[in-house]
Amino acid sequence: MLMPRLWNDSFFDNWMNDFPSSRYLVQNDADLMKTDVKETDNGYQVIVDLPGFNKEDVNAQLEDGYLTITASRSANNDEKDKDGKYIRRERYQGNCSRSFYVGDSLTEEDIKAKFDNGTLTMEIPKVSAQKVENKKTIAIEG
């Protein structure tokens, strides 16, 4: 028996993509935190767009050579009528983060950060690679 074209293998794979609101259900952190990385003479400038976030909502950490930027926010919009019954009650809570490898030799004091009007700007200095002073030859057997 032939099955209609509607029931092919890919019908169930992406069925949520057909709903207009489905793109708001799951968002990638990279979609929320648009980031530009620009190389300068002294290092790198990282510019992260964080619309709707305040300075207190943003955290930057350096651990094991990775710079991790995290932003979290929660909102509670309660509206009641004159009798104290809810007309609308919405809550939002979410967080997002991005990580960048900046090297093991940087410390927190090396990185400068500034938050202004929903944009986080970080200045990360370049670290020169350590030179190997002595050449050593590896013996090849055979």
What does this structure look like?
The longest helix has 4 residues, at 29-32. Residues 15-26 have low confidence and may be disordered. This protein is mainly β and 142 residues long. It contains 1 helix and 7 strands, in the order H-E-E-E-E-E-E-E. The protein is 3% helix and 43% strand. The chain has one helix at 29-32; strands at 35-39, 43-49, 58-63, 66-80, 86-101, 112-116, 119-125.
Question: What's the SSE blueprint?
Answer:
Blueprint (H helix, E strand, L loop, with lengths): L28 H4 L2 E5 L3 E7 L8 E6 L2 E15 L5 E16 L10 E5 L2 E7 L17
Antiparallel strand pairs: 1-2, 2-7, 3-4, 4-5, 6-7
Summarize the structure.
With 142 residues, the chain is an all-beta fold. Helix content is 3%, strand content 43%.
Notable traits:
mainly beta; 1 helix; 7 strands; 43% strand
* Largest sheet strand order: 1-2-7-6
Q: C-alpha Rg, in Å?
A: 25 Å
Mean pLDDT: 76
Largest sheet: 4 strands, antiparallel
User: What is the distance, rounded to the nearest whole angstrom, between the alpha carbons of the first and last residues?
Assistant: 66 Å
What percent of residues are in strands? 35-45%
Sum up the overall morphology in one term.
Answer: elongated
- Provide the succession of SSEs: HEEEEEEE
Specify the structural class. mainly beta
- Total DSSP helices: 1
Residues in helix, %: under 10%
Number of strand elements: 7
Regions with little confidence, pLDDT below 50 for 5+ residues = 15-26
